[in-house]
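Data availability excerpt. The first of two example chains:
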Amino acid sequence: MNRVSVKRAGGVAVVRLNRPEKMNAVDFEMIDAVIAVAEDLAADPALRAVVLTGEGRAFCAGLDVANFSALALGDPEGLIMPRSHGAANRFQQFSLAWRALPVPVIAALHGVAFGAGLQLAAGADLRIAAPGTRLSIMEMKWGLVPDMGGMVTLPEILRADHLRRMTWTAEEVSAEEALQIGLVTEIAEDPLARAMALAQVIAGKSPSAIRAAKRLIEVACTAPEAEVLERESREQTDLIGKPDQMEVIAANMQGRAPRFD
């Protein structure tokens, strides 16, 4: 069985973890499949947005326990330390590939998002959770620390004291608490439907402006003020008067939906 499935609806790609009998627990095959899908999507100029979800009763229950033995009995230095994707290793790229995708990524969460699953969700731009979803930075339960890109993404989402508490205790939080502390964007009875609705709204906007906005927000979250201001001006300059922006103006003037190539 393929560990990941992809379906297209116009410019929106629905990426689904596909190991429901294991609550989409992450094994090495899934890591490689997720990275491959993200890389394929990143190269698609027609892509407008991505929805990331899980098949069955959970988004993702974390790393497959069977893999802990392979890590503990193997060569962690040789497995973890080599950089295979720029500054990241294979495990970190599992979540960071979605952060690097040039279009918005929305994670639709249900059941549980534990450990590797939570770090995968943290690589998305937005997280929509079903009521009753449980979330945890689970690694401390196994005597480990988050090492799948979470220490890049989670500090941008969570206040430092919440990040410390969740990392040190491995406690679960409910969707409702996750909303309060900023770990999820919103709660919806049907998170996949809500994520699809948001993705369709995004897909109807100027594709070049959406991609520029994602690049700009990434810089705005991490860079010094002068660099942010320079990038803001550059992205705007590169949009003004170009075909996508002219189509938006024409559509607004004519009272119709814009049409992009």
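And the second chain:
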Amino acid sequence: MANCSTDVCSYKRAWALDTWVRNYIHNPYKICGDYIKEGQIALDLGCGPGFFSLSMAEMVGEKGRVVSVDIQEEMLQMLRDKSERAGLRSRIIPHKSQPDKIGISEMVDFALAFYMVHEVPDKKSFLSEVASHLKPDGRLLIVEPKFHVSKPDFDSTLRVALSTGLKQICEPKVLFSRAVLLVKV
């Protein structure tokens, strides 16, 4: 997340999250395509301006939905505008969360936490809430930036995720990143 503070990446820098270079490096179809199926409900945590949400909305198809969560209303408005222009507005449910609570009611098949878990002050509470919204066999993909999150810090996050009842499936390769795919058991 270039140009982002140590807390939350400001909506004023949203342009850095939505470029052709990022699409080349972090193509949503390559990263999430194996885990999202038509008709599913997907969760994009810390969705920002919708870089992953729009592609996820295409992946879930007309009968699926994407719950896009962010703590900044400005990011969600950018997502609403972009999804309207892309003809995907009916598939995306923007949700403004609180800094300490996601606060959704949906149960989801797949959740993505891309470059954002390191910004969460209480990882145990956050990952417990995410796990509670996964359907049986639901999957969570956590991806963190190598340049910002050390291997010991990532391993600590993984231990917290495992303590919430999730089981590690694999460590997908994501350029410049540390990643883990987990399943609800």
